[in-house]
Amino acid sequence: MQRIKKGDDVIVTAGKDKGRRGNVTKVLSNDRVVVQNVNMVKKHQKPNPGAGKPGGIIDKEMPIHISNVMLYNPAKGSGDRVGFRTLEDGRKVRYFKSDNEVVDV
């Protein structure tokens, strides 16, 4: 089980986008995540008429390391550490370490 999953609301803790919040759109296998509207870069793209892509300069989201994001705790209003716990019915869930609130319901 991963600490950060696709669809989680996270806050960036380091780098040029420190303090920005966003949704995780993709989790990559090499401990990197793509967060919506975070770590935007300008990419020069060649046109591809076969795929219907125009050429020009586009904005693109690039992955950042998973250690530079924290799961956002709405009760606390900031990022929070995540732990794992097994419930009575045998399910393994994530919880916030500051207030022991279960993330996965």
Automatic annotation (TrEMBL):
One of its GO terms (cellular component) is ribonucleoprotein complex. Residues 3-30 form the KOW domain. One of two assembly initiator proteins, it binds directly to the 5'-end of the 23S rRNA, where it nucleates assembly of the 50S subunit. One of the proteins that surrounds the polypeptide exit tunnel on the outside of the subunit. Part of the 50S ribosomal subunit. GO terms for molecular function: rRNA binding; structural constituent of ribosome. SMART domains: KOW. It comes from the Bacteria. This is Large ribosomal subunit protein uL24. Pfam families: KOW (PF00467), ribosomal_L24 (PF17136). CDD domains: KOW_RPL26 (cd06089). PANTHER family: MITOCHONDRIAL RIBOSOMAL PROTEIN L24. One of its GO terms (biological process) is translation. The gene is rplX.
